[in-house]
Design brief:
With 245 residues, the chain is an alpha+beta fold. The chain is built from five helices and 13 strands.
């Protein structure tokens, strides 16, 4: 692909060859400080012309058409449609050349495909989305049995950087007692360090998805990514998955 930036991430998962996926970074792009680089978020206060130029470059490099969402930490999954920007936090498609896309800057992006490569999806899951069933909503919308799906966990705030209050831990443990394993006490009394990827694996296993890959990229500690907790006024990077002809 012409112009592919050197540090964009290609998911390491056993998806069919005609299923393509990538995660952008800050490399390249038209945005200036504090969004410098390849900001794709049009809701963060960046110059709209810069965001438009970045999105056009993304489309040109990938050779597919991203379907953007208006993300609000919901549990809504829609069919991907590049002609619309629906309020939702996940999308799916079985169409060739349309990329399911989510924007993040610490929340967890999760990409999906079925084993035959006939259907793909992308979900945006912060802790609220995970607790409320965002991943379960996405799996249900794909209408594919969980044991026939692959999932890849993208860059998110890591377990050494994500501190939460006891109420967050209580929500997850009440739903899945095993979730206690995803929390460890922080240096601040009564608070915990939370592992979003571990929590996502628990939720996915609950709906039959056990072929789960990825994880390990921390947006807070890795300067290639935008991070809201590191810098509140910042951009967003994209995680995308699509089917090629």
């Amino acid at each position: 692909m012409s112009g592919w930036p050197g540090d964009w991430i290609i998911p390491d998962w056993p998806a069919p060859r005609h299923v393509r996926a990538c995660v952008t970074t800050r490399e390249g792009g038209e945005s200036r400080a504090p969004f410098e680089g390849f900001n794709l978020g049009d809701h963060v206060g960046d110059d709209p012309a810069a965001v438009l130029a970045n999105r056009q470059r993304l489309q040109d490099v990938l050779g597919c058409e991203p379907a953007w969402l208006s993300q609000v930490h919901s549990v809504i999954t829609v069919e991907a449609d590049p002609a619309m920007v629906p309020i939702a936090d996940a999308s799916w498609t079985d169409a060739i050349g349309i990329a399911c896309a989510v924007l993040t800057a610490d929340c967890l992006p999760v990409l999906f495909c079925d084993q035959d490569g006939t259907r793909v999806a992308a979900a945006h899951a912060g802790w609220r989305g995970l607790a409320n069933g965002m991943l379960e909503s996405t799996v249900a919308a794909m209408q594919v049995p969980g044991d026939q799906l692959l999932a890849w966990l993208g860059p998110a705030i890591g377990p050494d950087a994500f501190e939460v209050g006891p109420e967050v831990r209580e929500v997850f443990v009440a739903q899945h007692p095993v979730a206690v394993e995803a929390f460890r006490p922080s240096r601040n009394a009564g608070h915990y360090m939370a592992d979003l990827c571990h929590l996502a694996r628990i939720r996915l296993a609950g709906c039959g998805v056990t072929a789960v890959y990825g994880g390990g990229y921390c947006t807070f500690s890795d300067p290639r990514f935008y991070s809201y907790r590191r810098t509140a006024r910042t951009g967003r990077f994209a995680s995308l998955v699509w089917i090629e002809d």
